[in-house]
Amino acid sequence: MDKNEDIKVRVDHLTKYFGSLHVLDDVSFNIKKGEFLCVVGPTGCGKTTFLNLLTRIYMPTQGELYIDGEPADPKKHSISVVFQEPSSMPWLTVEKNLRFGLEIKKLPKDEIDRRVEKIMDLMGLQEFRNSYPHQLSVSTAQRIIIGRAFAMQPDLLLMDEPYGQMDIKMRYYLEDEVIRLWKEMGTTVVFITHNIEEATYLAERVLILTNKPAKIKEEVHIDMPHPRDVTAPDFIEIRNHITDQIKWW
Ligand SMILES: Nc1ncnc2c1ncn2[C@@H]1O[C@H](COP(=O)(O)OP(=O)(O)OP(=O)(O)O)[C@@H](O)[C@H]1O
Fold first, then answer.
1. For residues 23 and 42, what is the distance between their CA atoms, to the nearest angstrom?
2. Tens-place pLDDT, residues 195-204
3. Alpha-carbon dihedral of residues 83, 80, 106, 181, nearest 10 degrees?
4. How many Cβ atoms from other residues are within 10 Å of residue 60's Cβ?
5. Residue 46, Ramachandran bin (φ over 0: left; ψ between -120 and 50: alpha; else beta)
6. Domains of the chain with CATH codes
7. 143-195, pLDDT tens digit by residue?
8. Where are the transmembrane segments (predicted)?
9. Which of 4, 94, 172, 184 is a good FRET partner for 62, with 20 to 30 A between their CA atoms?
């Protein structure tokens, strides 16, 4: 049993209906502080709905989501979200894209400088400091978004299929970058993906959801150091186990 102070998010008997459409069915689980959690599940089972409940775009039909012991509240909790579509601001340079949210938060200039430099170093963005997003490759543009999200030092970072449109080489590269940032910053990350290998590569724990109305089918703990070797027998065994569970979707 986790101690209360170790829990970042508590999902307590969460149920969501859209009209008569039953999407989430009495789902309960915790996310630990600093944990990297992947959520996998069949198309349309309610993964994005779960993120939208955390950010209060939607309200639960029943049950509640708590962040640091209080009902999730975007006014109180800082939550950053990274989507599949690159969403940097095209009229701002890379550096200004990274500064933007921090300036809105009215952080002191030296704190903004410190965070932006750290993210630029960690994400290898220094050479693109004065470039505009349209001058960059898709993967570099997505690195701005990911860097920007980590720079906010959010309570919670939600990533919804952020690498969905990328080819496998870019994916591997960005997966390693996201792990590096996560380790360095200690952020709690919820990462949604359809890609079982990606979940096995990244997560400390994988939540497998059923078809809707979604429940938790199984939780898989992955106690392997990063970066993981996708050809190692342990890795393949876990990946195959998750795939087997998914065959029953
Ligand atoms: N605002 C809404 N009003 C009505 N139905 C909705 C709404 N948002 C989502 N749904 C429905 O709820 C179900 C879950 O959608 P959701 O986008 O959460 O699934 P998902 O697991 O993220 O899907 P995917 O794997 O395709 O990304 C779907 O049937 C969807 O059509």
1. 12
2. 999 999 999 9
3. -90
4. 20
5. left
6. 1-78+157-162+189-249 (3.40.50.300), 79-152 (no CATH)
7. 899 899 989 999 899 999 988 877 788 788 889 989 988 998 899 999 999 89
8. none
9. 4
User: Would you say the ipTM is above 0.85?
Assistant: yes
Mutate to test the pocket of ligand 1, among 14, 20, 23 (most ligand atoms within 8 A of CB): 23
Question: 84 φ, ψ to 5°?
Answer: -65, -40
Nearest-atom index, ligand 1, CA of 43: 25
Residue carrying structure tokens 């999730």: 72
DSSP 214: B
- Ligand 1 geometric centre to CA of 25 (Å): 14
pLDDT reported for residue 1: 53
Nearest CA owner, ligand 1 atom 14: 46
The number of beta carbons lying within 10 Å of the beta carbon of residue 124 is 14
